[in-house]
Every structure is written in structure tokens, then in C-alpha cells.
User: Fold these one by one.
Assistant:
Number 1:
Amino acid sequence: FAQAAPFKIGFILPMTGQSASTGRQIEAAAKLYMAQNGATVAGRKIELIIKDDAGVADSTRRLAQELVVNDKVDVLAGFGLTPLAMATAPIATQAKVPMVVTAAATSVITTASPYIVRTSFTLPQAAVAMGEWAGKNKIKKVVTLVTDYAPGIDAEKFFKSQFQLNGGEIVAEIRSPLKSPDFAPFLQKVRDAKPDAVFVFLPSGQGAAFMKQFAERGLDKSGIKLIGTGDITDDDQLNDMGDVALGVVTAQHYSASHNSPMNKKFVQSFEAANKFRPNFMAVAGYDGMRVIYKALEATKGKGGGDDLLAAMKGQVFESPRGPVMIDAQTRDVVHDIYIRKVERVGGQLWNQEFDVQKAVKDPGKLGA
Ligand code: DHB
């Protein structure tokens, strides 16, 4: 009776470079999931392979090729930035290997390959919720400030259209570079435009530097309210941001302070194992593992790209973020979007959820 071959999950993540916190968070979460749920599924030993692409698309593509051809992985996973996911999509399609996106969040990603399933989020989900909240909460004039690449453009576009629908006016649209940004000149432009609020999207890892410059330039005392997608008050860095973050309102699908028994257990176990707080990248990695485990179970350990993919579509489950569904048509994540405000509770800074939109599908795919 031959031993069944291990089931290989090949994560490609930025473990070094500007987006290293994304890799660190997702690796920690994937390992926590395995520690809690066992390293054997339907008789197959789970083998986690982690490769560092340093956030460089050429490396992601090469590593994906190697994982598929040499390691013969059963699933590809990870993808810390949109260009890295887009670079890998054709490889997943050609190899018929499911590609579980646990970070990158531009709407279009899931359309790049029928083998992509996403457990992270989409920028339009959060941006639309924020546009509506701002319009309904006495904010009339807004400057948008986003990182100049695909998810930033998604955030800008979807915030703008929903905010305008709710009676708001966009007075300036500013984009800052992805690489090593200096926010000072852009913050000066925000100041000069004298809006009621500035709506900001930055990728995970840049929030603390932004907040520091926001305070240094006195914008926190200027009467210009700071709002955004939850990427700017990222739980990975939030607790070190200081008073400048207090009162910042964002929309997102995950807060480490989400009030559910499952999340309390998740945060507690995660912090015990890692000495840092899980963020929205961690929860996507954790849920990505869940989707893979259940798919392997559904195939009774057989695996196979098409059968795994079929078993990933339509999964409904409780996540530390709240209820989640993988939309069978779009293969994208459907989840609740919370409106949160940063508050100090028990001596620490948290994104405190105070409103919710239930079961939000990606607005980027509603044919608008
Ligand atoms: C993307 C990366 C992030 O770190 C983030 O917070 C949102 C989106 C991306 O590149 O898709």
C-alpha cells in the first residue's frame, strides 16, 4: 500500500522588499491554519512551499514556472501585488493549476485566468462603501490620493462614482508613485485644495510612513478629514501610528478587533505564535488555506486542477472577518464591508467597526 504523494501548495510572496509585511503576514497565517487544522487532509500530507519574489513580477513568473514544472505543485497561492498576480495568470491557465490569490486586490485579476480564486478582497468593494458613507456624512468636497497603479486606480474610480452619486464633489485627483513614495508634495497639494476630506488608498506597508508625514505637515490639525480604504490603517502597523490615526474612518472587510468568537481565537493564537497582530493579508492567507483544504477534502484527496477548482467555487464559510462566500460565477470573494473608526481601546489602537454592508460582491464585476 503505497504512501500517497504529498499535496503541494506553492505560495509566492514578497518576503523581502517594500511589501515584505504582506509575505510575513500570509506565511504566518498559513502556518497557523495548518497548526490548527492538521497537516494531513484526506490522507494527503500537506506540503507548504514558500518562495520570495521580492515583489518583482519577473521573479513571480519564473518562480511560478519552476513550482509548476519542477515541484509539480497542486495549487499556486499568494501574490502580494496586482502586477505579480497578472504575471502569473497565464501560467495557471496553461498548467490548469488553481491559483488562489490571497493578497492582490484589483477587480480585474479574477478575469485574467479561469483558474484564479480570490480570498483577499477587491478595492471597489471598500471604495464604494466609503463613497457612500462620505456622501451621507456631511463631506461635500474630497481630494483623492491613491498609489499610481491598478488597485489605486480602482479605488479612485469607484470611490468617485459612488461619492458623486451621493452628492459629493471631487476637487482633485492625485496619484503617488508605488516605489519609495515621498508623500510631502502630494500632501501639500491636498492642503492647497482645501477639501472637507482626503480619500486615500496606499498598499499594505505604506500606511505608517504616510501617517507620519500627514502629521509632520500638520494636516491632522488642518480640519481636512482623513478617510480611505482600510489599507491605510493596516493592523500590521496601526498600533504604532500614534494619535494621528485617531478618528480616521475607513471601509474594509477585516479588522483585528472584529467582534466574533472565531476572530478572538484567531487573533489570540496568531499573536501568541508571532508577536504581531494579524492584518487583512493574514486573514486572506488563512481563508485561502481553508478553501484549499476543503477542496482537497471534496476530491477525497485526489486533487487535480479542474476538480479542485470546482470544489473551491461556491464555498461558504465563517472567516475571522465574518461570513464569506466564493462566488461560483466570478470566483471572487463576497463578504461584509465594515465602516470603521480608529479608537484607542485598552491602550491600543484599533479599527472599531460601527456600520456594515452585508454580502458585498465586487462592484467591478456588476457590469456598471
Ligand atoms: C494591493 C496590494 C496591497 O498591499 C493592498 O493593500 C491592496 C492592493 C495590490 O497590489 O493589488
Number 2:
Amino acid sequence: PSSEASTAFTLTPIGRIASDYPDKFGIPRQPGLASAARATLTLAPPFDDPLTVRGLDAFSHLWLTFIFHQSPTRWTPLVRPPRLGGNAKHGVFATRSTHRPNRLGLSLVELVKIETHHGVTLHLRGHDLVDGTPVLDIKPYLAWAEALPEARSGFAPAPPPSLPVTFSATAEAALLRRRDGDSLRELIRQVLAQDPRPAYHKNAQNTSERRYGVRLRDVDVRFHPSASNGIEAMHVEDIV
Ligand code: SAM
């Protein structure tokens, strides 16, 4: 390799994400799949000068580049996209895998509001980032240049199928007791519709007796496959 190619760059996060997703498990695989997911991005000094975001509120959507900080630094040339059931192998650069050289992530998110009273905090929706994710850069999204619906999209030509989601009476009662009940119900619906069970469980027979859990905001959502080939949210409990 030439000396130029082997030059290492040091990148400093400009801020961190606080997210509706406390764990990696259950997060939809791309940002638009759960539009109800909320996050804040708080900028760190010296990037927290309000001048850095002057004019940004004129944009509805942003690109975030970030580090998959919860992924191993180890990577392999071939990965198994979950979208293909974990069976087929594709080149790491032919996928959006989190196990990649440099661990760089790229997500298109909705910008809801910017707060500049104490430093800078961006309020975001429709993201796919775990709590604590370090963000490297923010760029405004330019729909005229970057939206190409006719582009070929390889093994992921359309959004993944989404399952019908129902709520037990117990889960509904728990949601009704919460101030954020409506937005949490919508988030649970969007996350469970993506069927967050491990791929090898989805295809297995007789799994309806199994119980699964996913953590969203400050709750544990217990769910299972329902009789009608959907998912039922059974319990919504405070994380203890
Ligand atoms: N939209 C981004 C991209 O294309 O670079 C991320 C796609 S990646 C397939 C989405 C998954 O990354 C989520 O389902 C979540 O489990 C995982 N994830 C999110 N934040 C992460 C982090 N900070 N470290 C490791 N994995 C993360």
C-alpha cells in the first residue's frame, strides 16, 4: 500500500445520542422503519457553540455519521445480512453491516427541533441508533440530489415485510397509565412489526409458546408470536 493509503486519521465525536433504544437488540435495521423512535443529540465542547447549527433548522432531515461503538473492531470480508435469513454471504462493503472496517455508520434522521439554551441539543425522530452512540458529523439532507427511488437496491429492493401487531389488555392498561402512552404504543408497534426475534426462531415451528423481550425507553416489552401470524405485545413493564 502507498504511504497515503496507510495514513491513519483520528476522529473526535462531536456529540452523543440519547435514545429510545437502550439496547442494540430490537432496533430496526434502517432509520425510516420506526418513525416514532425519538433521540436527542447533544453536542460536546467545542462543537456545542450555537453558531455550528445556525441555519440547520431550515432542514427537515439530516445525515448522521457515527461509530458503531458497540460492535467489535474485528471484521471479516464476508458477512451474513440478517435480511437474507443469515444464510447467504455478501462482501462487507455490499452491506450495511455493523461489523465493518472503521465501524462507520450512516443514518438519515428527521430533525424535530434544535435547543440552544445550554449548549446545543438536536431532537430527532425515526433513527436506528442505540443509546450512547458517538456521532462524528451532521449534514443536511438534500432530497433533490440524494433521493433516488429508482436506484437498484441489491438484496434489499424494498422495505422488509411488516407483521400485524396486537396488544394484550394488560399491555394496553400499562400504556394508558403513561403520559407518553400514545407515542410509546406507536414505537412498540413499529418495532415489533419488524419481528425482532432472532432469524433462527422466526422460521422454527411451534414457537408461539416462547416469550421474548425488547427494551424501549424505560420499559421492558414482553411479546410472543400470535396465532394470526403476527406479534402480540403481552406486557409493558418498568425496567427494574
Ligand atoms: N443506518 C445505519 C447504516 O446504514 O450505517 C445503520 C444500519 S445497521 C444495519 C442498524 C443496526 O445497527 C441497528 O439495528 C442496531 O442494532 C445497530 N446499532 C445501532 N447503533 C449501534 C451502535 N452504536 N453500535 C453498534 N450497533 C449499533
Number 3:
Amino acid sequence: TLMLRSAGRPPWYAADGKNDPVYMVGVAGGSASGKTSVARRIVQALDVPWVVIVSMDSFYRKLSPEESKQAFLNNHDFDHPSSYDYTEALRCVRDLKQGKATSIPQYDFAKHAPSTESQRVYGASVVIFEGIFALYDPTLLSMMDMKVFVDTDSDICLARRIKRDVTERARDPIGILQQYDRFVKPAFDGFVRPTMNNADVIIPRGLDNEVAIDLLIKHIQRQLDARSQALMRPALVRQFRSEDD
Ligand code: ADP
Ligand code: C5P
């Protein structure tokens, strides 16, 4: 399978992408709603060798020195749709969707800046694209086979965000609340929640919703099995033909 993917698109794939062997899932939802946790659970459960999670953190736009100064004062808006570079996101996702290797930038939340190292990914059969605006950009949406929105109560999200940002993102609770009031909450109401309309599936309570997650995993696995059978068929036909010759 890896050889097929790294060799590019085999000639029998339908031009409309219906036979595309790479399955792409978009996972959106509020900050700390459980997007990453749901994506990781899917990865653990799927019986396929190559699965990659692409996080939208990788595509935050680089800040100017003045913007960076404001970011450390919790005065920078990271929650407006324009804070992401969708062209760069599209480059990575398109490479993966076409079965190619790609480099994914990494982000350092403590520094409000991209890390110096990016991650090299050598193709995947399942790509999970996760982020608050994962279901926002029309081109990205058109490449997704399944669109998921994680819908967790905002008080639970805020409590989890405070804990996570203090322990993992080098923030202080007062600053987190200031940023939340000023940017995170208004952007969620104004921009993020409306993208729920683009979802195929809404998961209330995130990772706690074991039934919904189990259904998701079963659906993805079924789609992958059907695709690998569709891929095998032309190969078998060709094999029989050459035996006939
Ligand atoms: P997101 O990717 O949406 O920002 P995460 O999956 O990273 O959210 O979750 C945010 C924080 O909340 C993490 O520290 C994670 O461990 C925790 N968390 C997520 N889901 C649950 C849950 N169901 N129960 C307890 N903690 C959770
Ligand atoms: O992982 P999560 O979905 O919570 O990441 C998105 C959040 O990260 C946004 O709500 C944004 O406020 C926050 N963020 C931040 N500092 C940065 C970049 C993003 O607090 N430098």
C-alpha cells in the first residue's frame, strides 16, 4: 500500500476522487472541547498502519515583534479565522490526500511562535485534521470524507483550558481568563459554533461519549475496508488478464 501511495495516484482511481484511498476526517469544536482527545482515540482504534493527526496549531501565522509582545500580555487575538494560514494548511493536507510525503510545521504555545523543527510525514491512509477552524475553509471542507464537530459545554471547556494552559502552555490563570473574555468566547460564538452547520456528525460531550465515538470508528473502518477492496479489484483483474495471456 505504501508503494502505491508513494508512487502517486494509480491510473484506475476515479478522477472525481470517489476511489481516493486516503480518508480524511475534519474534527472541529471549541478550544479544549476534546478535539485532540477524540482524534487520538480514533487513531488508537483504527486497524490501519498509517494514520496522521494534523493539528491546526501548525498553521498559526507568524507574529510581528509588536504582535508577539501583545501575545505575551494576552492581548493578541488567536481566535479570529484570519489567525491561520489556510494556504499552508492546504499544502500539507493536499500532499497527504494525494498520498505524498509532506512536512508539517510544529508550534510552540509557550513562545507564541512556530518551533524550529517541522515533522516529516511519509503518507497516510487516514488523515485527521483537527482545530477550532477545521470546518471553516471551503477548499479544505471539500477534501474531507467526514466532518465532525465536538460539542462540549463551554464551562467544561474553560475549566479544562485553564488546567491545560497552566500546565502545558506556560500561562497564568488570570491571563487565560482575560484572553477568554476578550477573544476566545466571542470568536467561538461568532465564528466557530456556526461551522457546526458544516458537520456530518456532532459529538456531544467529546471523549465521554463512547457510543458516538465507537460509531465513528466503525464507520471509518468500514469505509477503509470498502476502499481497499475497491483497490484490490482492478489489481486482481489485471493479474487474471496477464495469466490469460
Ligand atoms: P482540544 O484539542 O479540543 O483543545 P483536548 O482533547 O486537548 O482538547 O482536551 C483539552 C484538555 O482536556 C486536555 O488536557 C485533555 O486531557 C482534557 N480532556 C479532554 N477530554 C476529557 C474528558 N472527557 N475528561 C477529562 N479530561 C478531558
Ligand atoms: O488546542 P486548542 O483547540 O485549544 O487551540 C486553540 C486555542 O489556542 C485558541 O482558542 C487560541 O486562543 C489559543 N492560542 C493561544 N496562544 C497561541 C496560539 C493559540 O492561547 N499562541
